[in-house]
Amino acid sequence: MYIQQLKQEASHMIAKIELLEFHKRKLLGQELSSCSLQELQEIDSQLQRSLGEVRARKAQMFQGAVGEAKSKEKQLLEENVQLHQRISRKSEIFT
Fold it and tell me: First-to-last CA distance in the chain?
């Protein structure tokens, strides 16, 4: 009984994997010749949503990178001011 149940579960999982692989191929633009106009529109909509999410994530990452760069710039400018002050103090000592 238990083995039969495992076989059924494995068979169900194999079918599910095959279906997911089929949908993946469609999203990658493969095997589209069998698609109806409605299926193509659904694929197009899904790709547009995904593209929007990718672009939003990319923009978020760019904003983070810009923020980090501005922070680093501020730190370097402060360090530069401190170094100029040190140089001024040392040249005052020698003159």
Answer: 97
pLDDT for 12 equals 96
Residue matched to tokens 């530069």 = 80
In three-state secondary structure terms, 30 is coil
Give the separation between CA 69 and CA 61, rounded to whole angstroms. 12
Tokens representing residue 52 in the block:
């929007």
25 touches 31 (CB < 8 A): yes
Q: How many CA atoms lie within 13 A of 86 on its CB side?
A: 6
Average pLDDT across each block of 10 residues of the chain; the chain has 95 residues. List them in order.
91 96 92 92 95 98 98 97 91 74
In the predicted model, what is the mean pLDDT of the chain? Answer: 93
Q: Give 93's Cβ-side CA count (13 Å radius).
A: 6
